Amino acid sequence: MQQDSILHFFLILAAISTIVFVFVFFSSWQDDTNNEGVKNALRKRFWFILILLVSLGIFASVTIPKSPYFLFADEVPSKIIHVSAMQYAFLLSEKNIDAKNPVGESIILPSNRLVEFRVTSLDVNHGFAIYNSEMQLITQTQAMPGYVNSLRYKFDKPGKYQVLCLELCGVGHPVMQSTFKVQ
Ligand SMILES: [Cu+2]
């Protein structure tokens, strides 16, 4: 499963970091006559920084293109859903939501078609997080007052999806939720 491979990746990364720290710690314990230790340390530092920068460069070039912000960037969405978050509810609508008289409606989305959520907030910052029927987080963005964040997604499984708030926004935060259907 994807979560397992991510967990394994971070465990391996943690193990490598631990080995590097242990290596650096013990290699700094040697006797130092004629200043060899300083030269050695400088050489090690150079290689350490070089390997670190190359690894970070490889990691960034592999992961950044997979960022969800570029998902479906060159496709036209077949449905646009306006989302207004507020303490303590999410309003979803196919029409523009009037901030002075905000009203939502029940939403049914087509499966395997590109949907764009245009997410904003009417009061404080909220999180707009979509969970599938197994309560796995599948995509999310922030709902911010004064901004509209676009979130694009293709739902491949029909069913009931749940929206939960991912940002502590006040006393009603734990009950802030909404649902929609995909068919
Ligand atoms: Cu919240």
| Secondary structure: number of strands | 9
CATH class of the largest domain: Mainly Beta
Task: Report the sheet-strand fraction.
Answer: 25-35%
CATH superfamily membership of the largest domain: Cupredoxins -  blue copper proteins
Structural class: alpha+beta
Question: Ligands in the structure?
Answer: copper (II) ion
Which runs of at least 5 residues are low in confidence (pLDDT < 50)?
A: none
How far apart, in Å, are the first and last alpha carbons?
A: 25 Å
| CATH hierarchy: architecture of the largest domain | Sandwich
Could you report the average pLDDT, rounded to the nearest whole number?
90
Judging from the principal axes of the Cα atoms, what is the shape?
elongated
Domains, number: 2
Helix content: 25-40%
Radius of gyration: 24 Å
Let me know the largest β-sheet: 5 strands, mixed
Q: Give the H and E element order.
A: HHEEEEEEEEE
Tell me the strand order in the biggest sheet: 3-9-8-5-6
Q: What do we call the CATH topology of the largest domain? A: Immunoglobulin-like
Please report the number of helical segments.
2
Characterise the protein shown here.
The chain is an alpha+beta fold and 183 residues long. The protein folds into two domains: 2-69; 76-182, Immunoglobulin-like (Sandwich), CATH 2.60.40. The chain is built from two helices and nine strands, in the order ααβββββββββ. It has helices at 2-27, 36-63, and strands at 79-86, 89-93, 108-109, 114-121, 126-131, 137-143, 149-154, 159-164, 177-182. The strands form two sheets. Strands 3-9-8-5-6 form a five-stranded mixed beta sheet, with no helix packed on it. A hairpin with a 5-residue loop joins strand 5 and strand 6. The chain is elongated, with a radius of gyration of 24 Å. The mean pLDDT is 90. The protein binds copper (II) ion (CU). Copper (II) ion binds next to loops.
